[in-house]
TrEMBL record:
Protein name per the record: CheY chemotaxis protein or a CheY-like REC (Receiver) domain
Stored InterPro entries: Bact_response_regulator (IPR050595), CheY-like_superfamily (IPR011006), PhyR_sigma2 (IPR053866), PhyR_sigma4 (IPR053867), Sig_resp-reg_PhyR (IPR014605), Sig_transdc_resp-reg_receiver (IPR001789)
KW Phosphoprotein (keyword) present: yes
Record-linked SMART domains: REC
């Protein structure tokens, strides 16, 4: 099997990670493109002594570490207010901590593998993850709308959200309910399932909401690869079903990290 065939199944998930790390589909996808270009240009440099997925993320991290993350990738425009708030939070939590959190909680790497990717020992990764969660949870607070038609899943998400110190302003099970509740409460974060109770789409509900006001959105789906092609406007933050509580916590923390409307807690 060729290297390209080995890497293809892992590309959607690298896109997820890159988008979450940068807080932007455009910026994240640009780093993924740069990673693939580097592999094509020098295939002999690709790490062959590890699993292909690990090698792919390792190459991505080499690109990420060498880039100036304060500069735009591919000339994309970044809103000054959005960038300013992200920079202010970056001053209080190191990028390495955020990387460790996302690699373990969202991407499912072991502390050992995450350490390989970021150049740290496994015990250091554990400390970095704890530091990231503590700092981000302390910095952010939001009112959250949950769009989910499975009662048990909705209750679980609601518990996680409240445990993080956020307020749940509503739980909607249809597109119409979601839009109505969003317009009534204007939440600071939306957690949206893809398939809703009346066969309507959570994606359409979110499009309706975003047409009225801007709000960070985390999509929840059992088929993430369908929304991570890089070929059209797609979610920046995505959780895969079935999910771990730590994954939801990491996604919420990261989405709010880049949100200009979120205010410091306390």
């Amino acid at each position: 099997m060729s290297l390209g065939q080995d890497l293809a199944p892992h590309l959607p998930f690298l896109r997820r990670y890159a988008r979450a790390l940068t807080g932007s589909q455009a910026h994240g996808d640009a780093f993924v493109r740069a990673t693939l270009e580097a592999i094509v240009a020098a295939p002999d440099d690709f790490p062959r002594d590890v699993d292909p997925r690990l090698g792919l993320y390792r190459t991505f991290h080499a690109i990420w570490s060498s880039a100036n993350i304060e500069e735009n990738v591919d000339g994309d425009d970044v809103d000054d207010t959005h960038e300013g708030i992200a920079k202010a939070r970056l001053a209080r939590i190191t990028p390495l901590s955020r990387q460790a959190l996302l690699l373990t909680a969202m991407e499912g790497f072991t502390p050992e593998d995450a350490g390989y990717l970021i150049g740290a020992e496994a015990n250091e990764v554990d400390s970095l993850v704890a530091e990231a969660l503590s700092e981000i949870e302390r910095q952010t607070h939001a009112e959250v709308l949950i769009i989910e038609d499975e009662p048990i899943i909705a209750m679980d998400i609601e518990t996680i959200v409240r445990d993080l110190g956020h307020e749940v302003v509503g739980v909607a099970v249809t597109r119409e309910e979601a839009v109505s509740q969003a317009l009534a409460r204007r939440p600071g974060l939306v957690l949206a399932d893809i398939q809703l109770a009346d066969d309507s789409s959570g994606i359409d509900a979110v499009k309706d909401i975003l047409a009225e006001f801007q709000v960070p959105v985390i999509f929840i789906t059992a088929f993430p690869e369908r929304l991570l092609t890089g070929e059209r406007p797609e979610p920046t933050f995505l959780i895969t079903k079935p999910f771990q509580r730590s994954t939801v916590k990491a996604a919420i923390a990261q989405a709010l990290f880049f949100d200009t409307a979120t205010v410091p807690a306390g």
